[in-house]
Amino acid sequence: MYNFIKKIAALSLSTTYCILATAQGIDHWETAVYNTDQWSYYVGTSEPMTNWMQPNFDATSWTTGQGGFGYDDGDDNTIIPATTSVYIRTDFNLADTSVIKHLILQADYDDAFVAYLNGTEIARNNIGTVGSPPPYNALASTYKEANLYTGDQPEYYNFNPTVFRDLIKQGNNVLAIQVHNHTATSSDLSSNFFITLGISDNSSNYRATPPWFIPPKLGSTLPLVVITTNGGATIQDEPKVTAHMGIIDNNGMNNLGDTYNGYDGFIGIEIRGASSQSFPKKNYGFETRLEDGTNNNFSILGMPEENDWVLHGPYADKSLLRNVLAYHMGTTTGRYTPRTQLCELYVNDDYRGVYMMTERIKRDKNRVDISNLKEEDIEGEELTGGYIFQIDRDDNSTNEDGWRSSSSPSKFYAYHDPDLDELQPVQKQYLRQYVTDFENVIGSNTYLYRYKDFVDEDSWVDYFLVTEIGKHIDAFKLSFYMHKKKSTYGGKINFGPLWDFNLGFGNFDFACPPDPEGWTYEFQGTCDNSHPFWVKKMTNIPNVSHKMNCRWNDLRNGPLHTDSLMQFLDDKLAEMGDAPERNFNRWPTLGQYVWPNDFVGDTYEEEIGFLKSWLTTRLEWMDDNMLGDCNLVSVETPTKVYNPVGIYPNPVNDYFYLDTEVDNYQGVTVQVHNMMGKLVLTQNVNHSVEKIQVNNLTSGIYFCNIVDNGTVIASSKLIKQ
Q: pTM here?
């Protein structure tokens, strides 16, 4: 099946081709609507019916005539009496919408207008509020003279595919316009309107453009990010260099030289990434700053205010969309996943191609919404959260920025937020001990009923399913993020956010099979030798597998339906317009092997065709092989729910904090025994976090039991220094 996918990828899928044909540039321009066409018109002596601009409106009672409409002053074709307003509409046919790359409304009028395409407002000037049709007797805000009769150009209103794709339709379409005067006694009124189309092939279905037509200089349909470093300094991998960043985001066509309306200020920027640093197209991390270098929390491209951001530049991923797709899937589960916005990047006047602007993973109410762990939070409940950490490489090989798992020594847990420099020793010890206790429980014979004491089971289900869809080479072993909440908010490990899928969806050629079949989490040998042992063990717990089955069915009937994901990809292709063409002119990797490609397409269409085919097959395989049985999910509620015993710091000096929770603390005690089994300390437990004095104990190893009315409900080893 996989080889078949690779063979057919060279053939553009029909839905893909319709979108991608627009990315190859405009072949020529034609005009679909002329001002001199036959229009239906209504002189505004009273309010027309509210649906007058809709395609289904019956305009047979209106008068017809040749546009434009106005007074007898030498520049009009149909003469109307003096009026405050005139309403006009005309039908026009579109033969093949798939080859329409660009649409322009050309407007020449006196004094104001509002235009509607198939009932949706698309442009207005000099009157009222967008989205609110002006009444028939509304007057233009100012005088505005028409241009054509003097030999000047009309106004151009440009629409890229992201705007007009949903408005136009194959076959009949309706352009409707209301034109208004500045005064009821004005001596002139003009109404000349055109629709001109940019066509991507050599077809000829419309008419020649007017003799005065000048093809517009089209920019990008994506926002433009322009970065200029101080003195042209080279951006490096630490420290950040100071730069200026401007963002052009017109919600339409964006051109260099336009006003910086998305951001216009200082940043600190550096290269980021591991293996990706070997690529000529770099990834960047940056902070938005004020002039004095302090943080400048700012909303970038519609994302919530923050100061830490990432510019991901797809290079080995020649679809340009693998991370965008994966993060979209993560978001549809309802879990926080970094938001994204495609853009085009310039650095020191050098075009760098298509990038994905995204949020850096960090604690924030609009990102990973956990408690803000402060420097002074070193005891009691405050010490229990929140933490963001990850399984990843040991960047400095000293273990200072994390710790190696005692159960899986090849696995390194790295501090992320707070990072190494911000964490206090007792905070590091607490997080390490909590994760170690979790691993010890999963490795014990009681794991089937104790694993939920440490982890949020539902977050694992969602993380697992999206990770398995992407089947990326680093799944469960690198950039594997987790976060721990404070005890007040459950105190457990949650899995995610998702991160780094550019070597997924069949885009790798080493260690593991890249085909769409097979589970990532259970491959043997080189594929999973870096997975923590508990990934497979926890996934195969019957009730976890059954929950995965239920959740999969729910998601597949909604946001992860194949049609929904294909539409998402098509929408992103339309959003990019011809940006991929510019990207691959800058980075000519099409048809070339870039590590670690398994499939190499000669064209962008082939790369997208492969991604779509691979994804479709992967989803179908998971449908047929999903773990568990939704009908067997346990709905039993235990009579008592116990959270794990947590001891920190451990080893201890004079005292330690005991972290546990039961339904009722009446009759709950902590009992400490020495190595000979002798009870050396007992104390009542009245709170979820209890301070236990052990200054009278000698150095050595002890066993700490939590006892609930005579029954040991949890235990842990205690080391007294």
A: 0.73
